[in-house]
Amino acid sequence: NAMITSWSGAVLRTTHMTGTATDLGSALGRMLSRFFRRGCSLRNFSDQDLDEHTVDRQKFVLMNCLLYSFIAGGVVGAGAYGCMELHS
User: Fold this and answer.
1) Which of 12, 23, 51, 53 is the most buried (most CB within 10 A)?
2) Residue 63: CB atoms within 10 Å
3) 76: left (phi over 0), alpha (psi -120 to 50) or beta
4) From start to end of the chain, where are the E strands?
């Protein structure tokens, strides 16, 4: 799933939360792989590495926000149902 998204150039998938979790893991994996390949030092990054790292970091932050918003919405919805029952 992540490979097809990367290959097709899609920015993110919003159809289901498993896509968000996949994109989150994919971005984290690329950042860690790049970091370890360059000897665990940001000083060894080329300009292209830094650009790719910035994009992956921004995706990582966005995916985390989407995932935590989804979880928070579930918690708020459960709380609202507990208070208002069928009117929520």
Assistant:
1) 23
2) 22
3) alpha
4) none
Structure token digits, residue 12: 């993110």
* 82 alpha-carbon distance from chain centroid: 31
**Type of residue at 17:** M
Number of H helices, E strands in the chain: 3, 0
- Per residue in 17-65, pLDDT tens? 777 888 888 899 999 999 999 898 888 999 999 999 999 999 899 889 9
Which residue type occupies 5? T
The encoded tokens of residue 10 equal 């899609």
- Type of residue at 48: Q
Place of tokens 């029952």: 85
* Nearest-10 crossing angle of helices 17-37, 47-84: 150
